[in-house]
Every structure is written in structure tokens, then in C-alpha cells.
Design goal:
Chain lengths: 388, 259
């Protein structure tokens, strides 16, 4: 243990005596997450009504009191007569994205003429946070607009909110796709550089062999170097987390949503745990790559593969189909290191998490990191890898 | 009396496809060291001399426990390098120009760091630091970042670090390779100092001049095998070491002198 600490201390001292590395560890992750958060907030505040991100191929849409003249148009749109007249029930389904549209014709609907005043108004409820709903709404408006003009109106009432989107949920969905990506990208950038230099760099510069001829076990050198990078992972995670914690309320402000988007201390604790334990696995994988690589260049060329594990699911999570398939996996999501952190971060941001899944994630990630350190130790025993 | 007995060391490397193409060969394996044996004693400098690719560096790396032999062993005072590499490393210094200190560190920090790794007590480390820094004139740049030092100064730092623990055995692989004349002289003086202080010193080199100046005995190595092992006097027999080596080389090649 003494040898491990000696090696770790030397590495940490080197990190803390280099201003550029200090900046990277403490400031860069915060700057990336916070800066990107601010940029997105500014963009969203100007275009918040356009945030539609879901996709659902099967249309579920209902009409109430639809007159016969509209049958063919409604058939074309795939809108079926509602089984009953429970308006609130169908509005609730649209809001929760279980249905795409509710079209309500007034009881006394009449096709008007140029002289009719007021014209009968059709209320069309949709959800702008769902692709299929938005698509259907667009089609409906096109068809209705091209029908004989001024014989009826739709969505004319200023008092009714026709877009039934749950803005808080929409915000959380958007953030759950972007934030894990930003956070792990920031942690990755810091750890990748330092992990690559820690082992591949020492190998390239001839310092690793200088360490290997000392009487300490090779596993101790591996563990010491790993510990120092894990500390970097913790610091950069905290920095990225700080950026995230400050950005989250700003996102809410940008979308003018104050309700149901506030996060409690336990929510933040879960998010921090997800980031730190995910960063542990990240750091250890980067160290394994660094151990296998011949030099820093090769290590930095191989490392971006790791980002794919985070990027693809993060970007795809905004798709209804992908999310539905992911949800079907249930607790299995939390046994895959790195992905489990991304998923837990998404759950935490959506305020739809369980501490049991968090426990699985933390445990699996810490176990994976320890296993990774053992693997690095074993790799240090392999002549071809360490001695070139 | 410290004794190193090298017993029938064998090391084979797998040649990658890329290397095979580069070298224009078909063999998938190369026997780099093929049954090398010799004995070196304290208070003498033993030289391993041979052309590039003869197996010198592989032998030295096995002696330093950086790589393990396929078979054979090196016994340091009867302790096996194969079975107890950590114990052996606490008794030996290994120096090659490929091994470098951390360029971002200072000599002071490096010394303290390696003193801990070699498990030298703080008091002893302080005494050793004073002694070695004075001897090698390191005090004036002890707190300068190593990357800013000259090649000769860096070599002094490497030498000092390698002997922090006052080793009984000193192994130097091509110790002057790529060094300028000042740094080479520092290394040569270091070897003679080690000999004077009773260490068992083994050097490998292709520089006949260095061997003639510092070695008491030498072994000539070709194609992974030792072809001659004797005192310098007996090897040279009135000739220069280079001539002696060349004569042995041509006699082994059936009178042909192609290299």
C-alpha cells in the first residue's frame, strides 16, 4: 500500500504543480457544461415552442361530434371517432403522449358561408413534444385550410391551450439527452489527456522502465497511477457537476417553466453519484487504453471509441422508440458500466429514478473500476505491452 | 564477495507481420539470446561486447528483471532473478540511455521519490542525497526542472537515481549511446567509481574503446551466443580489442568478413 501511495502522490503532485492541468481539472469541465448550458438556454428561450423531438409511427387520434362532411378528411388523417365523449380523458392522453390528437367539433357545428358570423370553431388538441402529434397537427391544418375557406375555423379561441405539451417533462427529456453527453464529454476530455500521458506518456519518454526497475511490484505502479487518475476523475466530475447544477435552473428559466423542474438535494446527490462513478469507469478504461497503447498518440487515437458508448444512447434517448426499448430492459440498464451512469443521469434529470437502480449503478461502476485496476496490473506484467 | 552467475539464458521473441515485412524475413520467431552463461564478481567490470542485434540488450534486460527469460536464470548471490525479481531489483542498479527521469520533475523531487520506491529510510536518503549530489555536482541544479538541464546534467541525475539504494550490482546497457563527450565521460567515471567501491559492474556496449578503458573481463556475443569469455589481456593478446573481435568474428564465419 505504501508503494501505491508513493506512486500516486508523485502523479498527483505533478498534476497539482502544473497550472494547465489544474485548469483542465477544475475549470474546463465546469466551463464546458455551464457554457454549453447557457448557450442552449439562450437558444431555447427564443425557440421554445418548436421543441418537438419524439417519433411515433402509429397514430392515435380521436374526434368528437365530427360531422359527416369531414369523414373522408378524418379518415385520411387517421382520426377515429372517440368511443365516448369524455373530453378530459382524451386531453389527458394527448398530454401524456398516449394519444396524438383530440379534435372536438361543437354540438351545433355548421358549415358556414362568407356571411356567417361567428363561424363554427373546431378545437384541435395536440402535443408539440411528440413528433407524430405535431406531424398530424400540421397535416390537419393543411387539409382544413385548403377546404372551402371561411366555412369553419379551428383553434380560434384565445382562452384555450390547444398544445397540451407537458413543458416540464419536455424540458427534462431534452436535458436528459444533452446533459449526460456534455458531462461525460467534459470528464472524458480531462481524463483522456492525463491518462494517456500517465502510462503511454511515461512509456514513450522512458520513465516507465525507470519505475519498473525499482523493487516495487508492477501492480503497485499500476494501482498508484490508477489512483491518481481516479482522483482527477472525481475532481473533474465535481467540476462538471457544478456546471450542471447551475445550468439546470437556467434551462427552466429559458423555457419559462418554474413548476415541477426543481431538483432536491437528494436528486443532486444521485446525479453527482452517477457522474463520479461513471467517471471512475471512464478513467479506468482510458488507463487500460493508455497501457496497451505504444505512445500518447496511439492512446489518444484509440480513446474516442469510449465516447461512442455515451454519445449514441445520449443522442438516441430523445427518440420514443429507443427510449421505449431501453425502458423494456428495466434493471438490466444499470448493470452495464458507463451506460448505467448515462441512464441514471437521464433518470435523475427526468426525476424518474429509484435509489435501488442508483445502488446497482454505483456498486457495478465501483466494482468495474476495481476490476479495471486489476486488469491494468496484469497488463503491467506483460512484457510486450509494458516493455514494447 | 558479490557474485552474479548467469546460467544458460534463452529468450525468443515473436516477430510481428509488420516486422517480418520490414526485415524481409519469413521466420515468425527469433531467438535473441541462445544459452548465455557467464560469471561476474564484485570489484570488477565485466563487459558484454558485440555488434548490434547480437542479443546484448535482451540479455541486460533479463539481468535487470525487466523481461523474463524463456529458460535459464541469473543468480545474484545465489538468489534467483526469475523467482525473486523484486528482491533482486533492490540490490541492483540498471542504467541505459533509454531509461529517463521524469522530465517535468526536479532532481531533488526525483531523488526523494525513488528513495521511497527503493525503501530507503529518510535519514539514509538524506545522507545519500548529500553524498551523491556533492559527488556529481548536482546541488547547483537540484531544483531545476530536468527538461531544462543539459544532456550531461540529466545523465548525472539518472546515475544518481540508479544508485540511491547503494546497490551491490550495477548493470549498464549501452550506457554512452547517444551521449555527447561530456556526458560519456561522466558515465565512464561513474563506472570506475563503482568498481573502486567494490560493486559488481556489468556493461554491454559495441564500443571497444569503452571496454578497453573500464573492463577487467569481457565476453563477446554474436547471434545470441557467447563466443569468447576471458580477461581483456587474454582476449586481446597484444592486439586491439577491435582486431581481436574481428578475428574471432571472421573465424566463426569461415573466413568471410561480410557483416
Amino acid at each position: 500500500m505504501r508503494d501505491i501511495i508513493t506512486v500516486a502522490k508523485k502523479e498527483i503532485r505533478a498534476f497539482f504543480s502544473d497550472k494547465a492541468i489544474l485548469m483542465q481539472m477544475f475549470i474546463l469541465p465546469f466551463a464546458i457544461v455551464f457554457g454549453y448550458g447557457m448557450l442552449m438556454s439562450a437558444m431555447w428561450s427564443g425557440m421554445r415552442e418548436d421543441s418537438a423531438v419524439q417519433d411515433n409511427k402509429s397514430i392515435i387520434a380521436y374526434s368528437i361530434n365530427a360531422p359527416a362532411e369531414f369523414s373522408s378528411a378524418l379518415d385520411e388523417l387517421g382520426i377515429k371517432p372517440a368511443p365516448d365523449n369524455d373530453i378530459e380523458k382524451y386531453k389527458s392522453q394527448v398530454k401524456s403522449k398516449d394519444a396524438d390528437m383530440l379534435m372536438i367539433f361543437p354540438d351545433d357545428f355548421k358549415m358556414g358561408s362568407e356571411d356567417t358570423n361567428p363561424l363554427s370553431n373546431i378545437d384541435i388538441f395536440y402535443n408539440s413534444d411528440k413528433d407524430s402529434s405535431m406531424e398530424l397537427y400540421s397535416k390537419a391544418t393543411v387539409i382544413f385550410t385548403t377546404m372551402q375557406p371561411r366555412i369553419f375555423t379551428f383553434n380560434e379561441s384565445a382562452d384555450i391551450e390547444y398544445d397540451l405539451v407537458d413543458k416540464a417533462a419536455m424540458l427534462r427529456n431534452l436535458l436528459s439527452g444533452i446533459i449526460p453527453l456534455m458531462v461525460f464529454m467534459a470528464v472524458y476530455m480531462v481524463c483522456m489527456n492525463l491518462a494517456a500521458n500517465s502510462i503511454a506518456g511515461d512509456k514513450e519518454k522512458g520513465f516507465l522502465n525507470t519505475l519498473l526497475i525499482t523493487p516495487i511490484k508492477r501492480e503497485s505502479i499500476a494501482a498508484g497511477k490508477s489512483l491518481s487518475i481516479l482522483l482527477v476523475a472525481i475532481i473533474s466530475s465535481c467540476s462538471a457537476f457544478a456546471g450542471m447544477a447551475i445550468s439546470l435552473p437556467k434551462f427552466s428559466e429559458a423555457l419559462a417553466i418554474a413548476e415541477n423542474t426543481s431538483y432536491s438535494i437528494s436528486d443532486y446527490a444521485l446525479l453527482l453519484g452517477a457522474v463520479i462513478t461513471g467517471a471512475f469507469v471512464f478513467a479506468v478504461i482510458l488507463l487500460i487504453i493508455s497501457t496497451i497503447a505504444k505512445d500518447v498518440k496511439q492512446a489518444t487515437q484509440l480513446s474516442p471509441i469510449l465516447l461512442i458508448i455515451v454519445m449514441i444512447p445520449s443522442l438516441l434517448c430523445s427518440s420514443d422508440n429507443f427510449s421505449a426499448n431501453v425502458e423494456k430492459l428495466g434493471a438490466k440498464n444499470y448493470i452495464i458500466p458507463v451506460w448505467n451512469s448515462v441512464k441514471l443521469l437521464q433518470d435523475g434529470i427526468k426525476l424518474n429514478y429509484s435509489w435501488a437502480n442508483a445502488g446497482i449503478t454505483f456498486g457495478i461502476n465501483i466494482a468495474a473500476a476495481l476490476l479495471g485496476i486489476v486488469i491494468i496490473g496484469k497488463l503491467f506484467r506483460r512484457e510486450k505491452i509494458v516493455n514494447g | 564477495m558479490e557474485t552474479l552467475k548467469v546460467q544458460n539464458l534463452v529468450k525468443t521473441f515473436t516477430i510481428s507481420e509488420k516486422q517480418r515485412k520490414a526485415l524481409g524475413i519469413n521466420e515468425k520467431k527469433k531467438v535473441a539470446v541462445n544459452g548465455i552463461s557467464f560469471t561476474a564478481k564484485s570489484g570488477e567490470v565485466f563487459g558484454l561486447i558485440g555488434p548490434n542485434g547480437a542479443g546484448k540488450t535482451t540479455t541486460m534486460r533479463m539481468l535487470a528483471t525487466l523481461i523474463a527469460p524463456d529458460s535459464g536464470d541469473a543468480l545474484y548471490n545465489d538468489v534467483s532473478a526469475v523467482k525473486s525479481p523484486e528482491e533482486i531489483r533492490s540490490q541492483l542498479a540498471f542504467l541505459t540511455t533509454d531509461l529517463k527521469p521524469d522530465m517535468k520533475s526536479t532532481p531533488n523531487i526525483m531523488f526523494d521519490f525513488f528513495a521511497e520506491l527503493y525503501h530507503v529510510s529518510k535519514d539514509t536518503a538524506e545522507k545519500r542525497k548529500k553524498l551523491l549530489f556533492d559527488e556529481f555536482g548536482i546541488n547547483k541544479f537540484a531544483d531545476t526542472t530536468i527538461s531544462k538541464l543539459s544532456q550531461g546534467q540529466r545523465q548525472k541525475v539518472s546515475l544518481v537515481i540508479s544508485v540511491i539504494h547503494d546497490p551491490k550490482f550495477v548493470i549498464l546497457d549501452e550506457p554512452t549511446n547517444g551521449l555527447d563527450i561530456i556526458a560519456s565521460r561522466v558515465v565512464r567515471d561513474f563506472i570506475l567509481d563503482m568498481k573502486k567501491s567494490g560493486k559488481c559492474v556489468i556493461i554491454s556496449t559495441h564500443l571497444f574503446d569503452l571496454v578497453e578503458k573500464v573492463c577487467d573481463r569481457a565476453a563477446m556475443i554474436m547471434d545470441g551466443k557467447i563466443v569468447a569469455d576471458d580477461t581483456l589481456e587474454n582476449l586481446m593478446q597484444g592486439r586491439s580489442l577491435e582486431d581481436a573481435f574481428y578475428d574471432i568474428y571472421t573465424s566463426l564465419n569461415g573466413g568471410k568478413d561480410e557483416v
